[in-house]
TrEMBL record:
The keyword Membrane applies. The chain crosses the membrane at residues 43-65, 77-97, 109-129, 141-165, 177-202. This is Integral membrane protein. Keywords: Membrane, Transmembrane, Transmembrane helix. It comes from Caulobacter segnis. InterPro entries: Pr6Pr-like. It comes from the Bacteria.
Length: 218
């Protein structure tokens, strides 16, 4: 690994971690010991936070513990394609469906920009530059649906108990379970389709890299 590559990876790992941390600090500000647990549950109820946290872990693990199972997993092509999918959909959904519903200012704008724009873009650039290790298998698209499926289950479960739903399109009291379940299913398909695109691009990238002629030695 060159010094420039390592510096780039450290930079985007720090950026990816800073977004959720800043957001949590803003959400926890002025909370009491009685209300902080509930606010913490709300914090981990946003797919934005979960996808950014996963991206930060995947970027940091190979730097901190390259020999660990997590570090090795984070560098594999399949997981990198899946994480790129989560961050891409995070960015697209926010900018097309949610950005117009509020007007963040100050540090909230900083956190929002990092979580919904900078980190997704940086991870995609990193994916394009470095690709991923190992074979890029099509089955990774199916596996990528597990994370959003678990998020859907988590949202419905804690929403039924607390009445809190993080996104309007998952608001059961307003839309009803049938409509929300249809939306979750549609989004699951969208995750798989986007992941297929990233897998295809990574496969093309790998083939192009393998087809490059070896340098002629003197």
């Amino acid at each position: 690994m060159t010094d420039k590559t390592k510096a780039w990876r450290i930079l985007i790992a720090l950026v990816a971690a800073s977004g959720p941390l800043l957001q949590y600090g803003l959400m926890a500000h002025d909370e009491t010991l009685a209300t902080l647990p509930g606010k913490t549950v709300e914090f981990f109820s946003y797919f934005t936070i979960l996808s950014n946290a996963l991206g930060a872990v995947a970027l940091a693990a190979p730097l901190i513990a390259p020999a660990s199972r997590l570090g090795a997993w984070s560098e594999q092509a399949g997981p990198r394609a899946a994480i790129a999918t989560y961050l891409t959909i995070t960015a697209v959904v926010y900018h097309t469906m949610l950005a117009h519903t509020w007007d963040p200012q100050g540090l909230r704008l900083v956190a929002t920009t990092i979580n919904h724009t900078i980190t997704p873009a940086a991870f995609l650039i990193d994916l394009a530059l470095r690709g991923g290790e190992g074979e890029t298998r099509w089955i990774a698209a199916l596996k990528s649906m597990a994370f959003p499926a678990l998020f859907g289950v988590w949202t419905l479960a804690h929403g039924a108990l607390s009445g809190f739903y993080p996104y309007p399109f998952m608001d059961v009291p307003k839309r009803g379970y049938p409509a929300v379940l249809v939306t979750i299913g549609q989004m699951g398909v969208a995750f798989a389709l986007v992941c297929l695109i990233f897998i295809a691009l990574l496969r093309v990238r790998s083939r192009m890299a393998a087809a490059k002629p070896a340098p002629i030695s003197a």
